Amino acid sequence: MYGLPEKQLSFLLRAGCDTLPTPMNLARCNIITSPVCTLCHCTQPTTNHILTGCSIASIALDQGRYTWRHDSVLQVLVRNFKKDLPPCYEIYADLPGHQASVSPPSTIPPHITSTLSRPDLVVVSTDSITLLELSVVTNTEHHRLAARNRKGDRYGSLLTDLQQAGCSVNLVTIEVGCLGHFMPQTVSKLSDVSPTVCHLPKNTIRCILQQAARVAISCSYRIFNSRASTTWDVVNLFTC
Ligand SMILES: [Zn+2]
């Protein structure tokens, strides 16, 4: 959290002790009588709901607030991994300008296998392919595990297809908390596959994740500040 702008640091600390002015907390202090989420009209608009649980913020076509945060964090990983990647590796990501093919959009090079699946980040070498899936989640172990299992299930058939195409395949699922937490195991997971992903030492991986975590906090801060607005017109991904 060092280096965060003052207001974002205050947001982070208040989120940690649940004293942000959410409708739930305002009702608890008798400032309002009926807590309700402006977007989905649910009656439990907690901090977690606003930051990760609101169905409208998540899926409505004109919203995509959580996708914006996810892609902003993914962009940090992609840029950093690309920086030191040896020329024999190809790296693709489910972000504009980083895909393996545009029509249909794919992060797996079509000459390896044809698929509509789009893992977040794909690293291809001559004899292996690594799929990396990122989730930006609430800071609870339950949600982290749920995200990991969901992603693991999603790519079962793609893994089989890639193996049948003769590739040695790794699937790495990593989670970054919406309030900037990440588990030590996330560093280990990335460093375990580092020889095939990016040849980065553990300390560098930790620095990259810290950068990603800071972006997650900044994005969550913006999402929180937009909690009472039914429109979301943010187009560009967040960059530090
Ligand atoms: Zn809601």
Structural overview:
The chain is of the alpha+beta class and 240 residues long. The chain folds into 2 domains: 7-63, no CATH class; 65-223, Restriction Endonuclease. The protein has 10 helices and 4 strands. Strand 2 (121-124) and strand 3 (128-137) form a beta hairpin. 36% of the residues are buried. The mean pLDDT is 87. Residues 37, 39-40, 42, 49, 54, 56 line the site of zinc ion.
Structure keywords:
alpha+beta; Restriction Endonuclease; 2 domains; 4 strands; elongated; binds zinc ion
**Low-confidence regions:** none
- Please give the domain count: 2
Secondary structural class: alpha+beta
CATH architecture of the largest domain: 3-Layer(aba) Sandwich
Instruction: Name the CATH class of the largest domain.
Output: Alpha Beta
What general outline do the C-alpha atoms trace?
A: elongated
Overall pLDDT score: 87
Question: Into which percentage range does the β-strand content fall?
Answer: 5-15%
- Bound ligands, named by name, code or SMILES: zinc ion
CATH fold-level label of the largest domain: Restriction Endonuclease
Question: How many beta-strand runs?
Answer: 4
| Number of H- or I-type helical stretches | 10
Distance between the termini: 14 Å
Strand order of the largest sheet: 1-2-3-4
- Biggest sheet: strands, sense, closure? 4 strands, mixed
Summarize the helices and strands and which ones pair or pack:
Layout: H1 6-16, H2 23-28, H3 47-53, H4 55-59, H5 65-83, E1 90-93, E2 121-124, E3 128-137, H6 141-154, H7 156-164, E4 168-177, H8 184-192, H9 194-197, H10 202-225
Parallel strand pairs: 3-4
Antiparallel strand pairs: 1-2, 2-3
Helix pairs in contact: 5-10, 8-10
The structure holds zinc ion.
Zinc ion binds at residues 37, 39-40, 42, 49, 54, 56.
